[in-house]
Amino acid sequence: MVGSSQEPLLEVYYDNCPGCIQDKKNECARGIPYREFFFVWLIMFATVLPVACLFPFLYFMIRDLKIAKRVEDIGFYAGFVGASFMLGRALTSTVWGIIADRYGRKPVMVIGTITVIIFNTLFGLSVNYWMAIITRFLLGALNGLIGPIKAYAIEVCNKEHQALGISLASSAWGVALVMGPAIGGYLSQPAEKFPNVFSTVPLFNWFPYFLPCLCISLIAVAALIGCIWLPETLHTHGIDKQVESIEASTESNKKETMGPSPPKQNLLKNWPLMSSILLFCIFSLDDMAFTEIFSLWAESDKRFGGLSFPSEDTGQVFVVSGFSLLLVQLFIYARLNRLLGPIILARICAALSIPLLFGFPFMTYLSGPILSVVVNCASLLKNILSVTIVNGTFILQNNAVPQDQRGAANGISITAMSLFKAVAPAAAGAIFSWAQKRQQAAFLPGDQMVFFILSVVELIGLIWTFRPFLGLPEK
Predict the structure, then answer these.
(1) What are the Cα distances from residue 291, in Å, to 177, 322, 326?
(2) Where, per UniProt, does this protein localize (predicted)?
């Protein structure tokens, strides 16, 4: 019998099974699989970049598409564009997870990356509101790799480096969620921001929001090329006729000595899995709503309680957060996780996020360099706390199921998360528009109400990290 750090479906290796080949490689390997980890990071990064890249320029894009009749209504229409991506993902994520468990992780990763290249580019070429919504919906519906790649990140290495694999996948997720808006903020409307370079190019005058989408699609092209060097990790235990007799003999011996294989557990009845997914969904809803609200709040006029930031200043905030977040995830998170564990670490981060969120609307009383420093530091801290929580939920989800169910489990996770994230932008946009109309209210006027609601959601997530809400797998 040959052991494996990746929990193979059978206790022998099959030469024609890509999962067994990878398990044997992992067992023999002593070092970190740098090449595989790099491409996992790049694919995840390229896939998540489009999720939030539009938020810094969405306010201006809705304005230019002339769908909103009043300035106060821009946030309302912006919310539905953000929600369309997550709605598309919610409808198909479980299907993509099942496909990944049946046909392999790699085909799903390739299809998802191609989807980013095509539909993210088309979104930048949107000529009306409905084209923007449809392209975002298809971008979410046809890109199902985020769930399977989380399982892939721990299957491509031995058990010793699984925490690092999860951390890298999560850091790519977190960095992309802040670098996407940075790219969107800096590169949107290039003919206005960089007239010496882009004003003579008609394409960028006709489509002022195409350049950031094009840049992200080119990153996705690089990720697609990287898929060539990635091995498959799914256990197929193939049907090569030359080994059928060996397989039959092995199965017969196993049944005599070990009895029949246990049936697969119903994932929906796996409370440790479902409770960790719900925890993930709560914090994902809060994080998505914050990302949209922060951009709308920062760019709205000061008379409506905003900061009157141009899109490039909003992008700068995300750049600072992105680079700092990458360093924290690579050099600090794994050590903190070993010291405290994912649950305690998530509780600490959630508790710190509550007062931090409630403090954002009071930054409007600042100005000049002090305002810039405080906004950047607060945004950086909020993103670090959010991604640290997400890391913990990833670990809890993957530890709650065996290897052959991780694709489906992550598909369920991404489906549920996408439903919550589909609600988040639409609800956040509607609440933001409502809050801007109540600047003189006696209780939590203006944007104070928006950030108060975000704090309440964070508190609900903190409560969920305790028993009996959060279940843990039996050891």
Answers:
(1) 9, 13, 18
(2) Membrane
Helix, strand or coil, per DSSP, at residue 311: helix
Cα(348)–Cα(418) distance, integer angstroms: 25
Closest CA to 57 of 186, 168, 153: 186
- Of 117-126, 197-206, 466-475, which gets the smallest average pLDDT? 466-475
Cα angle, residue 128 at apex, residues 215 and 72 outer, rounded to 5°: 100
Measured CA to CA, the distance from residue 110 to residue 107 in angstroms comes to 5
Pick left, alpha or beta for residue 130 (phi over 0 → left; psi -120 to 50 → alpha; otherwise beta).
alpha
- Joined together, the tokens standing for residue 343 give 């649950």
Mean pLDDT of 297-326: 79
Residue type, position 105, single letter: R
Question: Using CA atoms, how far apart are residues 357 and 84, in angstroms rounded to an integer?
Answer: 26
Structure confidence by residue, pLDDT tens digits, 384-394: 898 888 888 87
Tokens of 296: 């709308």
Assess contact for 342 and 472: CB atoms under 8 A.
no
Write the pLDDT tens digit of every residue in 218-265. 999 999 998 888 888 887 764 343 334 434 444 444 444 444 545 666
- Cα 172 from chain centre: 8
